[in-house]
Amino acid sequence: MTEPLLSVENLHTHFETHDRTVHAVNGVSFDIEPGEVVGIVGESGSGKSVTARSIMRLEEPGKIANGSIRYRGEELTEATDETIRRLRGQDMSMVFQDPMTTLNPVFTVSEQIVESLKVHDNPDHQPLREYLRIPFLHDRTDWADKRDRVVELMSEVGIPNPEERLDAYPHEFSGGMRQRAMLAIALASEPDLLIADEPTTALDVTIQAQILQILSDLRASRDMSVMLITHDIGVVSEVCDRVIVMYGGQVMETGTTDQILTQPRHPYTQALLDCMPQQTERKEHLATIEGQVPDQLGDIEGCPFASRCAYADAACQSAPMPVCDCGDGQEAACCALDRVPDPTREAVGVEGSR
Amino acid sequence: MTDETSVGDRVKSIGDRLRSAGVQARSKLGETRSRLVAAYHSRPVRQFRSNTLNVIGLVIVLTLILTAIFAPMLAPHDPEEQNLRDRLEGPSAEHPLGTDQLGQDVLSRLIFGARVSLKIGVAVVGISLAIGTAVGVTAGYAGGYVDEGLMRLVDVLLAFPGLLLALVIAGILGPSLTNIMIALAIVGWTSYARVVRGSVLSVKEEEYVKASQLMGTGRLRIVGRHVLPNVMGPVVVLATLDMATVILSTAGLSFLGLGAQPPTPEWGTMISEGRDYLRSAWWVVNFPGLAIMFAVLGFNLLGDGLRDVLDPREEESVQNKGL
Amino acid sequence: MWKYIVRRIISGLAVLLGVSVLTFSLTFFTPGDPARTILRKQMGGRSPSQAAIERFRETNGLNDPIPVQYVNWVTDVMQGDLGVSYHSETAVTTLIQQNLMPTVELAVAGLAVALVVAIPTGVISAVHKGGRLDYGSQVLALLGLSMPNFWLGYLLMLVFAVQLGVLPTHGFGTFGHLVLPAVTLGTGMAAVITRLLRSSMLEVLDEEYIQTARSKGLKERIVVYKHTLRNALIPVITIVGLQFGYLLNGAVIIEMVFQRPGLGSLLIDAIFARNYPVVQGLVLIVAVVFVVTNLLVDITYRYVDPRISLGGGSE
Predict the structure, then answer these.
(1) CB-based contact (8 Å) between C315 and chain A?
(2) B106 and B78 in contact (C-beta within 8 Å)?
(3) Fewer C-beta within 10 Å: chain A N or C terminus?
(4) ipTM score of the complex?
(5) How confident is the model at residue C249 (pLDDT cuts 50, 70, 90)?
C-alpha cells in the first residue's frame, strides 16, 4: 500500500487564554491519499480550521500539544522552520475563508502571485532587496518573465481578461474574483496538497458553485489532493471523494461521500443530515440538534457529542470512544452503535446523492 | 428607689444605645471594608494591577499629590529663603539637593514646585474639561449647523501648534502663572470637545436614548443620564494624559520666562534660572528636570493604564482565531 | 479623488479664514495703544502728545471700524505685506526670511533623527512583543515622551559639549552645531512614532493576509519588512505630518536652549519686546504653513493607501 500523502495521528492543538486552556483539536487522526479530495465537515467550533492550520504549522497562537503530522513521511511537528517554509513554498498550499481580508491590500494581485512563484523557484534564498523590489537592486527581468505565468494561472482559475488585470489591486476585485486570485496564489506553488478552509462560505451561492467547479477541474488537471473544509454538506456532496465528520475537536465518522451521505452510522452524522433543509417535508419544522457546542475547556472525558446525543448513556461520558470499523473503510467513533439506527436496515441519511 | 432605678435605667439605655451604635458602626465599617476588598479583586482593578507600569504610575501620582498637599511639612526650608552666603553649594546634609544661585534650597523649591505644577494642572484640565464637554455635548447633540460651526472653531484652534499659541496668548496677556493657565485652557479644551462629541454621536443613536426621547424626557436629562456616563471613561483617560501634557507645557512656558516669575518655585523656571551655572552647579538644572520627567511619566503611565481598563478599543479574544 | 481634494481645499480655506480672524484679533488683546508705542520709538523714548497720537491713528487707519481694519489687513497680507517691526522698522516678511533657514534645517534634521531611531525600534518592538527588547524600548519611549526637551538639551550639552568637549554648546553654522539640537528635537518625536508604529505593526500582524503571506512559504523577515511594515506605516505617515506642529513647538524651545537663530528665537524676542507686528506675522505664517501641510498630508494619505485613492469597489 502506498504511503498516504498526509497522515495525521492523534493531533492535539491547544490554545492558552489567561485563565484556561481550550482544547480546540482533541485527538484527530486521518489520512489523505495522493490525488483524492477529502471533505472535513463540522459546525463552527468543531476544530476543523485549527486542524488545517496545524497541518500548515500556522497554528499560532495555539500550540500542538501532542500527536503527529506526517507529510510524505516527514514529521511536521518536529520539522525545522526551513523545512516547513520549503513545504509551504513547494508542496502544500492553503486557501483561506474570507477573500476580503486574506489578500494584502497594498500590493497588486499579480505581485502577490509572482511572489508565490518566486518562493516556489527558490524557497531557501529570499533576499530582502529582491522581494522589496528596491530599485536598481532587484532582478527586473525575473519579475517581468513571471507575469506571463501569472496570466496563465489567472486563466486557470477562471479570472476573465487577466492581461488587463495585472496591475489591479485586491479591492478592485469582487469577492469571487478575490477567492480565485487566492487560488491562483496557492496554485503558483505547484502544491501536491491544497488545503481549502471554507473557501466558499463567504461567497454568494452562484459564485460558490463556480469555485467548486474550478476546484473539481483543478483536481483532474493537476493531480493534486484537496482537503476541503466546510460546514455545508451540500458542498461536500459536489466535490469530495471521502468525508471526515468532526465535532468538538474530534473525528466522529469517516467514509466515502456515498457512505456518509446515504449510510451514516454515527448519531451525530445522522442528526446533521436530518437537519438539512432538503430532508424536511414542506411546511414541517426544520429539525435541529438540541443543545450547544461544548466550549472545550480542559480535557473532555468521553464523547463530546454525548450531551446532545439521543442515544447516550453513562458509558459515553466516561471514556474515550472506540473507533468502530463499519465495513468498506467506513469508521465511526461511537461506543453504542448497537443502539443507533443501522442505515443498512432503516432509512437514514440522504437518498440519491451524487 | 425610683430615682435610682431611673438613673440606672437611663445609664443602661445609654449604654445600650452606645453599644448598638458601636455595632452598627463596626458593621458599616465591615461593609465598606468588604466592598473595598471586593473592588480590589474586581476585574478592572485586577487588570490594572497586573501591569507593573500602571501601578508605578499610580504610586508616582499619589506621591506627587501628597507632596503637594503636605509641602510645608515636608520641605526642610522656606523655598524662597535666600541665603547668599550659601549660594550654589552642592548637595549636603543641610541642603540635600544643593542650593541655587540665590542660596535657596533646591529640595524645598522642588517640593513646593510640585504644588505649583499640580495646582495649574488641575485648574487647566478642569477648565478644559468643562468647556470641552459643554461644546462637545452641544455639537454632538444639536448636530447640523451648530455642530459644523463648533467643529470649524475647533479646527481653527487646532491650526496653530499648541505650545505656540499658548505662548503667544501668554505673551500678550503678560507673563504670569494665571495667564499661562488661561492660555493653556484656551488651547486645550479642543481634545475634550472632540472626544465628548464622538461619544455623544454614538450614544445618540442607541435605542434606549430614542426611547427616552419618545417618553418626553428633557434633553438635559438624557445628556446627564445616558450620555455622560458613557463619556466618563475616555474623558478620565484624556484628563490624566492631559495632566502630563499640561505639566510639561507649564514647565516649558515658565522656562521661556512666560510663566512663574521669581521667586515662585516652579520647575521650569528653576531650570531657566540655573542654566548659566550648568558647568559649575549642575544640580540646579538637573534636579528640577528630573522632577518634571517623573511627574509627567507618572501621569503618562497612569493614563495608559486607565486607558487599558476604561477605554479599550481592541479586545483580544483567542476564541476568535478561527476555532 | 479630485472631488475629495477640492472639498479638502475648501475646508482648508475656511479654516484659514478663521485663522486670519483669530490672528488679527490678537492685536486687540495687547495692552497699550500701538500708536503710542510706535510713536514713542520714533521719538526716541519720549512720550508723544495726544494730538500726535490722534494724527497717527487717523493716518494709519486705527480709528476705522474693526471689520474695515481687518479687510485692510487681509489685503495687505495677500500682497505679502505683514507689517513692519516696531523695533527695527524692517518688514516682517524680511525678518521671517532671514530666520527661516536655520529653523527649517533644524526641523528636517530633527525629523530625520526621529525616523531613523523610531522605525527600526517600532518594528523590533512589535516583532519581539513581550520580550525584553520590547519592554526596554517601550520604557525608553515613555521616558523620551516625558522628558522636557529643554532639560534633555542641557543634559546633552553637559555631556557632549561641556564634559567631552566634542560639540559646541551654542551657535549656528556648521553640521556640528546641528547635532545636539537635532537629537534633542528628534527624541520626543521618536518616542511618539515608536509607540505608534509598534501598535500599528501589532494590528497588522493580526490581519489575515499576514497568515496568507506565511502560508506561501515566505521567510519571516520578508513577511515583516515587506507585508507588515508597508501597511503599518500608513497611519504613521499621517502622524508624521501632524508632528510638524510639534517640530515648531520644539524649535522655539530648542533655539533658546542652544542659542540658535531661527523663527523660534524671533518669536520669543518679539513677544518680550512687545513687537506685535512680528508676533502676528509669525503666528499667521506658521498657521498657514501648518494648515497647508495637513492638507497635503491628508491628500498624500489617500494616495498612499490604494484602497482609498483609486475609489475602487467591486465590479
Answers:
(1) yes
(2) no
(3) N
(4) 0.84
(5) confident
User: Residue A279's pLDDT is what?
Assistant: 61
pLDDT range class, residue A193, cuts 50, 70, 90: very high
List Cα–Cα distances, B29 to B15, B19, B26, B40, in angstroms.
Answer: 21, 15, 5, 16
For the domain B54-320, what is the CATH superfamily, name and number?
Answer: MetI-like (1.10.3720.10)
Contact C271 B301 (CB under 8 A): no
DSSP A276-345: SGGGSPTTSPPP---S-----BS---S-TTGGG-TT--GGGGTSPPPEEE-STT-EEE-S-TTTSPPTTT
> Which other chains touch chain C, taking contact as 3+ CB pairs less than 8 Å apart?
A, B
- Note whether B174 contacts C: Cβ–Cβ < 8 A: yes
Q: Which of A13, A14, A15, A247 to mutate to test the interface with B (most CBs of B within 10 A)?
A: A15
pTM of the predicted structure, to 2 decimals: 0.81
Q: In order of start, what are the domains of chain C with their CATH numbers?
A: 1-92 (no CATH), 100-304 (1.10.3720.10)
**Residue B199, pLDDT above cutoff 60:** yes
Core vs surface per residue A308-319: b (16+ CB within 10 A) or e: bbebbeeebeee
Query: Is the pLDDT at A322 greater than 60, yes or no?
Result: yes
Does residue C61 surpass a pLDDT of 80?
A: no
Domain residue ranges in chain A: 92-190, 265-348
Cell 527661516, located at residue: C100
Q: Which residues on B lie below 8 Å from A195 (Cβ)?
A: none
> What's the CATH number for A92-190?
3.40.50.300
Of A88, A98, A169, the CB nearest to C312: A169
Residue at B245: amino acid letter:
T
Q: Which residue on chain B is closest to A47 by alpha carbon?
A: B323
Q: What is the pLDDT of residues C111-165, one digit of tens each?
A: 999 999 999 999 999 999 888 889 899 989 999 989 999 999 999 888 887 777 7
Q: Does A172 touch chain C (CB under 8 A)?
A: yes
Instruction: Read off the pLDDT of residues A78-114 as tens digits, 9 standing for 90 and up.
Output: 888 888 988 898 889 999 988 889 999 989 998 899 9
